[in-house]
Hints:
Elements: E1 2-6, E2 9-13, H1 29-38, E3 57-60, H2 66-71, E4 79-82, H3 85-97, E5 106-109, E6 118-124, H4 129-139, E7 143-154, H5 160-169, E8 173-175, E9 182-187, E10 202-205, E11 217-220, H6 232-238, E12 249-253, H7 259-267, E13 272-277, H8 280-293, E14 299-304, E15 316-321, E16 326-327, E17 330-331, H9 334-346, E18 347-358, H10 363-371, E19 375-379, E20 383-389
Parallel strand pairs: 3-4, 3-6, 4-5, 6-7, 12-13, 12-15, 13-14, 15-18
Antiparallel strand pairs: 1-2, 7-9, 8-9, 10-11, 16-17, 18-20, 19-20
Amino acid sequence: MNRLSTSWGAYDLTRFPADPRDQLRAWSAADAYLLRHLAGEEGGAAVDLSGPEPTTVAVVGDRWGALTTVLAGHARVPVQITDSFLAQQATRANLARAGHAPDAARLLTTRDAPPARVDVLLVRVPKSLALLEDQLHRIAPAVHEGTVVVGTGMVTEIHTSTLELFERIIGPTRTSLARQKARLVFSTPDPARAAGPSPWPGRYVLPADSGAGAGLTVVNHAGVFCADRLDIGTRFFLKHLPRARGGAHVVDLGCGNGVLGTAASVADPDATVTFIDESFQAVASAEATFRANAAEDAKAHFVAGDALAAVPEGTVDLVLNNPPFHSHQATTGATARRMFTGARAALRPGGELWVIGNRHLGYHVKLRGLFGNAEVVASDPKFVLLRAVKSGH
Length: 393
């Protein structure tokens, strides 16, 4: 837990799932800079967050709920819009810790319709430029001439292309001076600007050298990894994809666009595939990919969640996993550890976890510690594909 001090008070904040060993903060200098600006501490007037009339404050991309938690006591029910299930859960926990009622903020996902009118739009610039583009397109119709639009991010996250998106979709845009390696983005809404609909999702067909995925149509919503081509790790995995036993329960864990689970379903139409990702955009992509390729009566479930937390223990035959090793800009092995631990609990005795990863990540050590075994199925100079089996004891 770490404390964010603001002119409105101090807030103890955590990421989700909370882990006392986690050294990563639940807020950044970019969040603090934006809050100081809103409070009028950066040389300008304070931004009116409640107003004489009902004012809608929308917070897009709030990573762990820091902005929403602070603003819940000062804005009329701020609306958070996030692509992250984990961020949404962190926000709920941080709101409760701050003493706010559950309805002190309205929590939406990137797949929900945004508010019809937004008077203050706050944007935590995401790592993905595509996700920013999609979200600005979706919320632009709610912005009016008087809307206050402020973005925030670390200097390394705000590029010329970032500013061009704000300029093209919202209106004239400028940046602030840098503070503690963070920067603000100011856009003035231009009512004459007609940005049009979002160009997302995108679609492409996998080439013939994609192993079990050859010929599949892939659907990618904005922000999902590898928007216009298959990443090389997944391509390698597809060339060695295990065939599920008839009627098996397969989990595509950290599913992204769902190509692994979809390929498993196409290869064995009797399988039931559960697609899980913490990204709402990814789960939507996986469902669209599955619907575009799988048999009409193929069985699948689509879950936005925390790894395998929602899957009953001992109910899975095969887990396919290409774990991420970044959380926003930070490199961390915590997500992979949580996925591996959850897989061991979810698998039936004799069930298998197949993991693809860069050689340097050393997943075989973690798997042997958890499962007591880890076999190299295939490898090349960059990747290693591992198989761990849950013992029958």
